[in-house]
Design goal:
Strands 4, 5, 6, 7, 8 and 11 form a 6-stranded antiparallel sheet that branches. The protein folds into 2 domains: 149 residues, no CATH class; 101 residues, no CATH class. It contains 1 helix and 21 strands. Helix content is 4%, strand content 48%. By secondary structure, the chain is mainly β.
């Protein structure tokens, strides 16, 4: 979700190795499919600019002999994939980055990026955007992004035996807090990768409501929004619990189609 605009981008994975970027107008809850990729988007290494106009993302399609060398970091116009700035990578270590302003970005570089095109008109910042370092992979971008966007890290274990890596909380209102538990594990279960989140609603009176089906959740103004079973939902928390729950969009209804970005590269 963009920090200074009522826009967002949904990263919808599936079927198989297809991934779509879908634009979301959060003021009207209207959705528009941007573009599809036959490959993987590493969603935890992505970011949207504060003004909601641009994306930085890390992708892999495994075509190692191409100019992009099979994996790359790109900056594009939301909600499209066509790269204005393109940096080839050649492996899946590091990659992606964060916006440090609407006209500047930090690259999760490590090593191996090669600049192929630089048409986004953005300045690359070398200053590390986080207070603490969480490694070069997904947590090293994702945890910084969460804390920047209003989440408080209450626990950082570092991949415990049960897979729990960190716990984050964000206040919903005077009665409720949204808790996000981030896992990092090599033991994969069906429908989950090595990185995934679970969520709880924690009441001021001590109530804890598990929301095991929520794959993603956040606080959007005076409502809670969450993804579950391929759908996006919203509802408002009052003292006695959730009210006005509604389905915003069912992403199982969209299928791969070639879409051209409305801008030239």
């Amino acid at each position: 979700m963009a920090r200074d605009a009522d826009t967002a981008v949904v990263i919808r994975r599936g079927p198989s190795r297809c991934t779509a970027f879908v634009g979301w107008n959060r003021s009207t809850d209207e959705f528009r499919v941007g573009q599809w990729l036959k490959g993987r988007i590493y969603e935890r290494r992505c970011d949207i600019s504060p003004d909601g106009k641009n994306l930085i993302y890390f992708a892999m399609n495994g075509r190692w002999q191409t100019e992009a060398r099979g994996s790359w970091t790109a900056i594009s116009r939301a909600p499209y994939l066509t790269a204005l700035t393109l940096l080839s990578k050649g492996d899946c270590w590091h990659g992606g980055g964060l916006f440090v302003g609407s006209d500047a970005y930090w690259l999760n570089d490590g090593y191996g990026h090669k600049l192929l095109r630089d048409g986004a008109g953005m300045r690359r910042s070398s200053a590390y955007p986080g207070k603490d370092y969480y490694g070069g992979e997904c947590p090293g971008v994702y945890y910084i992004r969460l804390q920047r966007d209003g989440w408080t890290m209450t626990v950082h274990i570092g991949a415990a035996s049960d897979g729990v890596d960190a716990v984050f909380e964000k206040r919903i209102n005077d009665h409720w807090t949204l808790r996000k538990t981030a896992y990092a594990t090599i033991t994969r279960t069906e429908g989950r990768g090595c990185y995934y989140d679970t969520h709880q609603l924690v009441g001021r009176n001590g109530d804890v409501l598990d929301r095991g089906s929520w794959e993603w959740a956040d606080v959007d103004g005076n409502r809670v929004v969450w993804a579950s079973n391929g759908c996006l939902h919203a509802g408002r928390m009052k003292a006695d619990g959730m009210h006005g729950e509604k389905l915003l969009f069912d992403f199982s209804t969209i299928q791969f189609e070639p879409i051209q970005a409305p801008y030239q590269v």
